[in-house]
Write a structure and sequence with these properties.
- By secondary structure, the chain is of the alpha/beta class.
- The chain has eleven helices and eight strands.
- An eight-stranded mixed sheet has the order 1-2-4-3-5-6-7-8, with helices on both faces.
- Helix 1 links the parallel strand 3 and strand 4.
- Helix 1 packs across helix 11.
- The relative contact order is 0.16.
Amino acid sequence: MRLSTCDLGGHDFTVREWGASGLTKVLMLHGFPEYGGAWDALAKRLANHFHCIAPDQRGYGASFAPYDVGAYSMKNLVGDIVQLIGDDGPVIVIGHDWGASVAYGLATSRPDLVSHLIIANGVHPVPFQRAMAAGGAQSRASQYINALRRDGSEDVLAQDDFARLMQLFSAHMDMSWLQGDVLDAQKAIWRQSGLRGMINWYRASPLIVADPGVPVPMPDLPLDRLRVHCPHLLIWGEGDTALLPVSHEGLEAFAPDLTRVSVPHADHWVMHQTPDKIAAIIKNWLT
């Protein structure tokens, strides 16, 4: 693994790379509350065939972390990645969790930069918003979003060596992978960046979370501009308790060249729990 600092729009971003620079590029976008190093296990299994590139996204690690909520709009988050790709596109893009949102934003707004889109337990904005607006199971599962948006939530989550943060993103899921050096590295990143930047992603998002049992009208979204035109692979850990199956129902309407692969005995953290299987799925699909 090679670690470097990249200037994007006059701001420093930390970038990790695996594999020879002459290989086909795979851009890997992490989610909450991780960082670029979260891709290490998977990237090592792909590095013989691909040049894997994983930035610490805005607000994470040593990367640019502005204080203002507005700096974390999807336009800005996608803009960072557009600058990172530069003239090297199109590239293969993999996104997980919030990284999937940026990956979808990139694929729909700059299709010239994305040759193939791979999502692991992440959601397209339209099916996800429909599910959260309905007031059903996904609305109940997403109530933590409203809690994170409250003022001072980052201070609460940081208390007692991040005890509440650990509880939040590990609830009802297999976290046996998060221990030892992996856990130490993750906590070091939280101490380095603080939590405000990463939580500002939730505050800046226009997504609406209905109260359980109280559906709200579906927001008016630019459906025609939210279509994925490149080949798209959705990998889904079946035991995810944060993102439920309803959150990706109807995805085919926005991604006509879609392949779905379910992974049993895995959950939201599928790329940590079964990196060999995920690497094999990706290689087989791409070749």
